Structure formats: C-alpha cells, structure tokens
Amino acid sequence: EIEDLTLVREVAHFKPIIENELSNLIYNALWFSPATQALIAYIKETQKVVNGTAKVKLYKGNAQVVARKSPNSLYDENLATYTSADTFDQDAAVGFIKLWGLPTKVYSEVQKNVE
Length: 115
Description:
Oligomer: single chain
Number of strands: 2
Distance between the termini: 47 Å
Radius of gyration: 21 Å
Helix content: 55-70%
Structural class: alpha+beta
Shape: extended
Order of helices and strands: HHHEEHH
Strand content: 5-15%
Number of domains: 2
Largest sheet: 2 strands, antiparallel
Strand order of the largest sheet: 1-2
C-alpha cells in the first residue's frame, strides 16, 4: 500500500514483472548471476522513496488497510479534486482525452469501411 502511494505509475507497473523474474532466478539457484544482481539493484533503487505508515484494521482473520501516509506521497489533493480551489488546469484534459481516444476513433473509422 505504501508503494502505491510513493511509486510513479511506470515503476509500479514494472516492479511485479521484475519481482517475478527475480524469483525465478533465485529459485533456479542463480543468486550470483549478473541478471539477479541487476534486478536487485533495480528494486533497491525503487525502494528509496518507499516509506511511511499504514493503519491496518484486523477483523475475523482479515487485514484491511484503512489509512496510509508517507512523506514521499505522490498524492496531491489539490490535483486530485475538481473544485474551484484545485490547481489542475482543466483545459489540459481536453487535449489528453482527444489524444487518449485517438486509437479508438481510428479503429471505429476503419470498421465503418470494413462493413
């Protein structure tokens, strides 16, 4: 949960892949392999910003994170809200939406010609 708060999206997405590959290398007795050492270095680098506290609720054998905080948190309430007091430039969203939806729009146009 603290990683979700402190790692950028690309690192958070890639880290499980690295962890899986590292597990395979170690399982296959390749602890001293250059690949193993490189993956460990990657994980160590990503963990430099991961610190904080998580409040956990325990109930009937389940554990649920109910609060978390970190001095390195990437969450900024002023950017995450849509109020008059937010700091995000709402006009930037228009271009992003058009760009993000472009592949779907092109696909739709191609499908019109196929039918």
